[in-house]
Write a sequence for this structure.
């Protein structure tokens, strides 16, 4: 081991900050060695973040914080948030290493983010990259066999240091050059979180995010099912940011192949869907209380429209023998009629078939 | 110099990213006015400014959420 870096020439590391505990601890370990650490966080559009809490009013008691920003502030480091929504589409649509249990392309995602981080350190004169990866923590992307693959395919090679598992991995350049003291790095392995919790306690870190299934909606079965449905019914895996945001909101009900209806579940979602009215056919109840809904797809007949209104009526305050008036507003390009009132009896709960719900 | 950025109808973290990218283009001392609608910005934009060393001069909550930010 060569000399540990000099105080007057601190080496600079960029830490991939997800907002969870592991990346926070990895960055903290390096800060303890007087390494200059800054954070980088990638926005893919699939992130489970504060905005989803903001949409749903029921979550109003949860902190509407962005966890990556919060972690950076706790650590006292800068954070660079990078928009990779467009570039990330190819990772989701065509993952070279396939999907995990759902539509999560975790290995390709990890390689891609480290490739972007490697580009970033070259452009910004940083020396190396750190992550909070722990061998065996995740079944696909954090297997020991994957670690060198990720390092190689991302181009980061030996500039990628995983401080929490370093003692079980090959030496990296920061260790070989003495930029960091390997003896102060760790050898965590496995799915147990106990070592991380103990380390957090040692660092007096009491508050941290613990999202079940990680910080990405693509690991969520219901979300992946809705995304797959979207692809299947469009005959294309193409998507826009608005599409994947809407999959996070409301009940998605597909009574026919040619359209689905997105029904708000509460006031926060109602407000959110209001913002998308110009992009979709929208349904609003006129003579009773209830949510708004959007229609995604093609309405081919008056019967389709009536079916959508009956489904929305199911979630209104009306009884099944009431007449519900629904204002249907069309997109501007869909002909001269901008809106009309449809009168229907609402469906009973059991008439909205279980198979229609996308979940 | 004063600049303006319209961030209405964007959900976090997009407003933060747009503020970050715009500030990167500006000179030290420039002022960036940002207009948002996502209530999450009330937390996220000041936090981002604090950790990156920029100064939030003013926050106004009316029909929209208005930030005035000085690049340091």
């Amino acid at each position: 081991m060569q000399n540990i870096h000099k105080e007057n020439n601190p080496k600079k590391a960029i830490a991939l900050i997800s907002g969870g505990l592991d990346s926070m601890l990895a960055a903290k370990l390096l800060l303890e060695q007087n390494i200059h650490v800054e954070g980088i966080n990638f926005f893919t559009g699939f992130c489970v973040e504060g905005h989803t809490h903001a949409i749903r009013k029921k979550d109003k008691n949860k902190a509407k914080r962005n966890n990556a920003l919060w972690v950076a502030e706790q650590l006292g480091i800068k954070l660079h948030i990078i928009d990779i929504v467009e570039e990330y589409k190819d990772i989701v649509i065509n993952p070279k290493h396939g999907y995990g249990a759902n539509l999560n392309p975790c290995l390709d995602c990890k390689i891609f983010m480290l490739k972007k981080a490697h580009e970033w350190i070259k452009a910004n004169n940083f020396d190396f990259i750190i992550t909070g990866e722990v061998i065996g923590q995740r079944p696909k992307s954090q297997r020991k066999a994957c670690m060198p693959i990720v390092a190689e395919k991302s181009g980061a090679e030996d500039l990628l240091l995983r401080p929490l598992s370093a003692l079980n991995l090959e030496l990296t350049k920061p260790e070989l050059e003495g930029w960091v003291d390997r003896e102060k790095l760790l050898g965590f392995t496995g799915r147990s979180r106990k070592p991380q919790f103990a380390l957090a306690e040692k660092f007096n870190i009491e508050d941290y995010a613990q999202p079940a299934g990680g910080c990405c909606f693509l690991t969520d079965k219901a979300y992946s099912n809705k995304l797959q449905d979207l692809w299947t019914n469009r005959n294309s895996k193409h998507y826009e940011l608005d599409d994947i945001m809407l999959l996070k909101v409301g009940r998605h009900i597909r009574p026919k192949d040619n359209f689905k209806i997105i029904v708000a579940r509460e006031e926060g979602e109602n407000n959110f869907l209001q913002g998308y009215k110009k992009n979709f056919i929208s349904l609003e109840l006129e003579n009773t209380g209830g949510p708004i809904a959007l229609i995604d797809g093609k309405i081919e007949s008056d019967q389709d429209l009536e079916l959508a209104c009956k489904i929305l009526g199911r979630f209104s305050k009306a009884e099944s023998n009431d007449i519900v008036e629904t204002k249907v507003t069309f997109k501007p390009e869909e002909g001269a009629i901008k809106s009309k009132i449809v009168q229907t009896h609402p469906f009973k709960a059991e008439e909205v078939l279980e198979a229609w719900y996308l979940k | 110099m004063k600049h303006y950025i319209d961030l209405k109808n964007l959900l976090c973290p997009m407003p933060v990213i747009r503020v970050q990218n715009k500030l990167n283009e500006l000179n030290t001392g420039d002022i960036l006015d940002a207009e948002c609608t996502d209530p999450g910005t009330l937390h996220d934009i000041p936090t981002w400014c604090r950790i990156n060393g920029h100064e939030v001069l003013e926050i106004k909550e009316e029909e929209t959420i208005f930030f005035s930010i000085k690049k340091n």
User: Anything to note?
Assistant: Chain A has two domains: 12-217, 249-356.
